[in-house]
Amino acid sequence: MRRHNPFEDFEQMFERMSHQFEDMSRQWETPSIAASRSGGMEIDVADYDDEIVVTADVPGFEKEDIDLTLSERTLTISAEREMERESEEGEYLRRERRSSSMRRSIRLPESIDEERTAATYQNGVLTVTLPKLTMEEGDDARHIDIN
Description:
Blueprint: H1 8-25, H2 31-36, E1 43-47, E2 51-57, E3 66-71, E4 74-81, E5 100-107, E6 118-122, E7 125-131, E8 142-144
Antiparallel strand pairs: 1-2, 2-7, 3-4, 3-8, 4-5, 6-7
């Protein structure tokens, strides 16, 4: 028999409300405040002579759960994870891990050669290598595959 947590509905409602307030407040935040509220996705952005390298901590996600988009010099990293529902055979005594999502957008200082952009994901760390363009070209959205 499944034990019912009387506060589960309130916790879920509070979580949904928190996400909505975070989404609304991001419109007026500075980048440093947004980073602290990014849901755990911490990033480093390194600018080298010929490329920009973005490294992001995305723990607990599979490669297939992560989506990268490059559009108008903005790199967007999104990750979404759905947790398994309870099975018929057993019950949880404690359940703290939940379905979750993360999203981070990084404005890049220079135009990027989208054709040579690459990404790797290993041990919860995503590394995106963005070669710089030597001349301005059109900014069209492009999906980046993760190797």
